[in-house]
Amino acid sequence: MSAKEGTVLVTGGTGYIGSFTTLELLVAGYEVIVIDNLYNSSEESLNRIERICGKRPIFYKADVTDQEALDKIFKDHPDIDSVIHFAALKSVGESTEIPVEYYRVNVGGTISLLRSMEANGVKNIVFSSSATVYGDATRYPNMIPIPETCPIGPTNPYGRTKMMIEMVIEDHVESHPGWNAALLRYFNPAGAHPSGIMGEDPQGVPYNLLPLLGQVAVGRREKLKVFGTDYASHDGTAIRDYIHVVDLAKGHIAALNKLRKDKPGCRAWNLGTGKGSTVFEMIGAFSKAVGRDLPYEVVPRRKGDVLDLTAVPTRANEELGWKAEMTLEQACEDLWKWVSNNPQGYRQMPPQMLLDA
Ligand code: NAD
Ligand code: WQD
Hints:
Layout: E1 7-11, H1 16-27, E2 31-36, H2 44-53, E3 58-61, H3 67-76, E4 80-85, H4 92-97, H5 99-119, E5 124-130, H6 157-175, E6 180-186, E7 188-190, H7 209-217, E8 224-227, E9 239-240, E10 242-244, H8 245-262, E11 266-271, E12 277-278, H9 279-290, E13 296-299, E14 308-309, H10 314-320, H11 328-341, H12 352-356
Parallel strand pairs: 1-2, 1-4, 2-3, 4-5, 5-6, 6-11, 7-10, 8-13, 9-14
Antiparallel strand pairs: 9-12
The structure holds nicotinamide-adenine-dinucleotide (NAD) and UDP-4-deoxy-4-formamido-beta-L-arabinopyranose (WQD).
Nicotinamide-adenine-dinucleotide binds next to helix 1, helix 5 and strand 5.
């Protein structure tokens, strides 16, 4: 692929999913320009990308809500033809405390981005949506597992920012010929790079199950709190569709290629495995990777949680030619390799043995 045709701007490209997608883009032969304000990430992720694939994206420390900064980057890089937009605030709990900030960054940032893209003739966008837009799909008959045709109805401000952004993008694509958009609804990203030198490095207190289990395993947390054992699942705990982050990253390349080749307009795709696992099954799988039982205690349900978020991934399988291939066991092993070798995340170098491998 020639660099002239294949330059992609990745917002939030030093973050968890963004860094893995940047790596896959570089491996696939794209030129990549990353912008990130480093609010929840570290520039060190770019060094790790370079160690793994021998290439490095161009990086700008910039904020997606800064219209002028965005315009300058597009003007300085007239070869950009597509954007993958990850930059966002993503903590469900925090979004209930400071909702306006979530709307400002997530919705406002996307609007700045779309305006800059429009002003500079860039018409392909891949957007990080979330399975959280579906809310509680058990409200509808026959919608578990969840197809893209399930009516959306998020249950928290974070989810509502994603729903609004989907609507803004859809309206823009409808009204502007030549535009194409992939709304990628991720289920639960999991795992790390098999090398052990790239993974999730949240800057604050983690909210998600697997990073929390990782902290229990390395002794940074005494035990895991299991949020509810009174769900209508076989063991009483809630069901999620955990997808290896490397598979998820590859889904973006498939979606980008679809936009560039087939120009489908605006379309939503679920990125999941189609297989659900309960919290207890996840504790079991991660304990196996660690090699010992991990302590937990049962506490009441977390507000806003739903019974089951499992994808029907058929649309992405058929239309994007993409399928999640890695197992849950692999995700757990890779996560353990990452957290056990990098207890401080990107704030310390991993063992030389991993860097040399
Ligand atoms: P992350 O926090 O690791 O990555 C987001 C990145 O965006 C970070 O590097 C952060 O510094 C950057 N950022 C935040 N605000 C910014 C701003 N105003 N300007 C520029 N950069 C900014 O999160 P992630 O898990 O990699 O998530 C990436 C995207 O995927 C987000 O849009 C998130 O909502 C979405 N998503 C995540 C999950 C998940 O469970 N991780 C699930 C579904 C959807
Ligand atoms: C998974 C399961 C919890 C922590 C969230 C967002 C979603 C997406 C992914 C961004 C649930 C249980 C968790 C703990 C527990 N992010 N759990 N003890 O809630 O499915 O999805 O992250 O878009 O939008 O809503 O993920 O990892 O927080 O929880 O028992 O300490 O683990 O109840 O059943 P969730 P999660």
